[in-house]
Structures are given as C-alpha cells and as structure tokens.
Amino acid sequence: MNKLIFSLALAFAALPALAATSIKATVNGMVCAFCAQGIEKRISSMPATKAVYVDLKKKTVAIEAKEGETLDGKAITAEITDAGYDVVKLETVQKSVEQIKAETKGRK
Does residue 5 carry a pLDDT above 80? Predict the structure, then answer.
C-alpha cells in the first residue's frame, strides 16, 4: 500500500514536468501565408525551438521549446520584429504547440 501511495505521489509530482513550455505571441502585420511562412522559418531556426504554429486569423504565433531548453522571449521578439512585424503581447504557457493549435481550431 505504501508503494502504491508513493508511486502515485511521484506520478502526480512529475505531471507538471511533462507539460511543454511554449510562448504565445500576438503579432500585428501578418496578412498572408507568405508572412506566416517567413515567421515560422525564422523562429524554427532558433536553437531552443521544437515547434512553431502561426495562426493568421488570430494573429498568434506559438513556439514550443525543446525538452530541457528555455525559450528566450527577447530573442523571439527580436526575430519577429526584424522580419517586419510588431509583437503586441508575449506570454509563457504550459501547453504544447499541438494543444494550442487544437484550441485555436476548436474556437473557429
């Protein structure tokens, strides 16, 4: 019984560690698929980036960190700004890009 309780406690303690860390950016100036592709390509080339999702309608860019890596919000903002767009809001979320993408598509 003690082993079961210990195992459950350990499993619940590990759950937050399994959640992916992502940054959601609200970006003004994206108007076409070419804009989205350009941002996606630039952010994907950053060393800590695992996945990128760009939603033109919601003006959102979601970036997921590789396991064990930390995303640099200032560097991401600089990449997007250098590409010619304005970052209005930046927030860190404990979700994967796939989860963010599913939520966005579910709200349409």
Answer: no
